[in-house]
Amino acid sequence: MTTSASRPAALAATAGCLVMVAFQLSLAAGAPFGRAAWGGSHPGQLPADLRVSSAFAVAVWAVAALVLARRAGLTSVPPDGFARVATWVLGGLVLLGALANFASPSGWERYLWGPFAVLLAILCFAAARRRRAN
Fold first, then answer.
1. Residue from 128, 116, 124 nearest 22 by CA
2. Which residues of 33-68 are buried (b: 16+ CB within 10 A; e: fewer)?
C-alpha cells in the first residue's frame, strides 16, 4: 500500500543514513567522539581497530542511503524490488541497533543514538510501504 508519507519518509531516512555516514567517517578519521560510539568506553579518539570498524560502517550506511534514495525515487539503482525488500530488512536491523544503543553504558548512545535509531527504523518501515519509487 502506498501512503502519502512514503516518499517524505524515504527522503528523511536517506538523510538519517547520511548523518550516520558523516558520524562514522569522522570516527574513522580520528575525531574525538569515542564516548558516543561503540559502547562509549573510549574517551576521545577510537583505537585503530574500532576506527577500521567505523570505516566499514561508512560503507554500510552509504549503501543503506543509496537503497533509501531509490525508495525516494532519487536514483534508478538498485532495482526497486530489491530496494523495497532491503528497506524492510534495514528497518529491522536498525531497530535491533536501537535496542543495543538503549542497553549501552554510554549516555550518548542511550539518549541520542537509541531514539535516533527508533525514528530511523520507523522511517524505513514507512519508506518500505511505498509500492514504486518512480
1. 116
2. bbbbbbebebeeebeeebbebbeebbeebbebbbbb
Is omega for the bond preceding 78 within 30 degrees of 0, making it cis?
Answer: yes
Residue type, 94: V
Model-level pTM greater than 0.85? yes
- pLDDT tens-place string over residues 42-93: 999 999 999 999 999 999 999 999 999 999 999 999 999 999 999 999 999 9
Q: Which three cell numbers stand for residue 125?
A: 518501515
Distance (Å, whole) CA 120 – CA 26: 20
- How far apart are alpha carbons 47 and 12 in whole angstroms? 32
Helix (H, G, I), strand (E, B) or coil at 3: coil
